[in-house]
Amino acid sequence: MDAIYILSSVGAVTCLIFLVKVVRHLHCYLRPSSLHQCNPLGKESWALVTGASDGIGLGFAQELCDRGFNVFLHGRNHQKLLRVQEQLKAQWPTSKTKVIVFDAGKPTEEMSEIVREVGNANLTVLVNNVGGAIGVIATEYIKLQDMTHQQVQDLVSVNALFPAQLTRELLPILQKNAPSVILNMSSAAAHGLPWLSVYGATKGFVGTFSTALNAEMRAGGHQVEVIGVIVGSVKSPGNAHVDEGFFIPSSRTMARSALERVGCGRSQLWTYWRHRLQGFVFEWLPERLLQLVFIKRVRILIARRDEKQKPA
Questions:
Q1: Which of 282, 284, 261 lies closest to 27, judged by CA?
Q2: What is the pLDDT of residue 19?
Q3: How far apart are CA 126 and CA 114, in angstroms?
Q4: How far apart are alpha carbons 194 and 200 in whole angstroms?
Q5: Which residues are catalytic?
Q6: Which GO terms describe its cellular component (predicted)?
Q7: Contact by Cβ (8 Å): 130, 58
Q8: Is residue 36 exposed (0-12), middle (13-18) or buried (19+ Cβ within 10 Å)?
Q9: Any idea where the domains of the chain sit in the sequence?
Q10: 34-64: per-residue pLDDT in tens?
Q11: Residue 103: CB partners within 8 Å, gap ≥ 6?
Q12: Are 244 and 250 in contact (CB under 8 A)?
């Protein structure tokens, strides 16, 4: 009888813990965003989006303009940024935009140039979106031994060093203008996808960096929320070999989902709920089985990429 009682108690506690986790997850996706607190009435609030020329960065710029923010558009191609600026001005004429040209592959002390561009603007949102492998290496799927020394350096610089250094530079401004929020783009690749070893490692850095910095802000009594946004597959120029589907949103949908999670109280989160479903699989499968799933999936993506790159 005692054994039955103990097993029943353990089962009840296990079910309760599972139910609490489910409720916590549902709360994140059903509660309204608190992003509006970063854009109070009577103030001109600004957001800075890195990598805003296209893809998820452009999606963030569009969504922030739609929510009444002014936006600093960062990128390394001046002409592309000007085209984006014109598009945003045509669709949201009341939102101001400013272009900031800076090569994220060279995060040096000269990053103070970005701080000077921000100036006295009421900056309350920082989106560390710039990253990826396109433009750094010839293909996003490559064996580590086939990469050059410079390619490894550039991947780490763009995906890890630049967001960390930029955040360090802008943090005093965000603290002064609080409440404010920092969104750092992480990735499902941090779970260990093959042929993405360095890129995945940098995204693991972004996740830990977000969690630690969020705790640091709380410890210091600063109203600066930091969220590591875990991103699955998204249809974008840098991921053009996939098509939109149930688990693959557009870049703007991905950006919208991240902004809608502001205030959820989590320092790392799959902000797109369908990606969260995939995340459960990552967490539950044994590591060796998960590796087999990853290997098969990436091989399919490589085959699709190679097929699309074939001359017509």
A1: 261
A2: 65
A3: 12
A4: 9
A5: 199
A6: endoplasmic reticulum
A7: no
A8: middle
A9: 31-309
A10: 999 999 987 899 999 999 999 999 999 999 9
A11: 76
A12: yes
